[in-house]
């Protein structure tokens, strides 16, 4: 029976995904409204982990419970779509539309009318952009011309647009320089604190995890155990 007080619980999970060994997680528990960085997942393993916790795939062995519900109990696609609406995702797997402006990319979660953008949607986009530090002067820049930090801010804003309660970040600083990664982590921490989000980041960037705050857990792929990193350096 899933523990309704936990945001995420995995027990004795195994999932084949094409790696040298199955993805294994012996035990992981994430409390609501906390921030956790998980280190040790490469890109394919991170994608598989995210698919498991969102119910997109089921484990071959073991149990996954997210937001108090077993993912195995999601009965059909309609129920799954309603379930996954509670998540926001920061991932390079979610395409940005390079030919469109920053404003149009941020409008898409709210409306498919983006030329012109309705006034009500434009107001929501403006608030969202301000929250993630996008200056209004850059809203009319095409995303294809945006620097990596602006693209990262757009990804974060898109993830927040529909007011999720669980934010998942897959290697969020992979495309950023070390100089940009730190302020980006600080921005995410501030947003998550302000919104009281449950946040899980899969990252190989330990400094990002330090700045994000909360727990940092190092995954052991062979055993599926997590070791808590108590001292950063």
Concise description?
This protein is of the alpha/beta class and 233 residues long. Helices cover 33% and strands 22% of the residues.
Q: Would you kindly provide a written description of the structure presented here, covering whatever features stand out?
A:
The protein has seven helices and ten strands. The protein has helices spanning 43-53, 77-84, 102-107, 119-131, 148-160, 178-195, 206-212, and strands at residues 8-15, 23-30, 35-39, 61-66, 69-70, 87-90, 166-170, 198-202, 215-219, 226-228. Strand 1 and strand 2 form a beta hairpin. Helix 5 packs parallel to helix 6 (178-195) and helix 6 runs parallel beside helix 7. The chain is globular, with a radius of gyration of 18 Å. The termini are far apart.
């Amino acid at each position: 029976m899933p523990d309704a007080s936990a945001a995420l619980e995995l027990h004795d999970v195994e999932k084949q995904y094409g790696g040298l060994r199955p993805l294994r997680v012996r035990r992981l528990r994430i409390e609501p409204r906390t921030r956790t960085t998980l280190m040790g997942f490469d890109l394919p393993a991170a994608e598989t982990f995210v698919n498991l916790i969102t119910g997109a795939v089921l484990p071959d062995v073991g149990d996954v419970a997210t937001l108090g519900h077993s993912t195995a109990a999601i009965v059909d696609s309609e129920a799954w779509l309603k379930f996954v609406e509670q998540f926001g995702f920061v991932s390079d797997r979610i395409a940005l539309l390079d030919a469109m402006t920053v404003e149009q990319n941020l409008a898409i979660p709210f409306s498919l009318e983006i030329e012109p953008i309705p006034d009500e949607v434009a107001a929501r986009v403006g608030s969202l952009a301000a929250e993630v530090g996008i200056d209004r002067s850059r809203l009319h820049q095409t995303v294809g011309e945006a620097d990596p930090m602006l693209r990262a801010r757009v990804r974060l804003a898109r993830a927040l647009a529909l007011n999720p309660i669980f934010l998942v970040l897959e290697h969020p600083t992979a495309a950023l320089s070390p100089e940009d990664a730190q302020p980006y982590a600080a921005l995410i921490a501030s947003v998550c604190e302000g919104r009281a989000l449950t946040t899980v980041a899969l990252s190989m960037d330990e400094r990002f995890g330090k700045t994000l705050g909360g727990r940092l857990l190092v995954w052991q792929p062979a055993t599926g155990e997590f070791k808590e990193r108590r001292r950063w350096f």
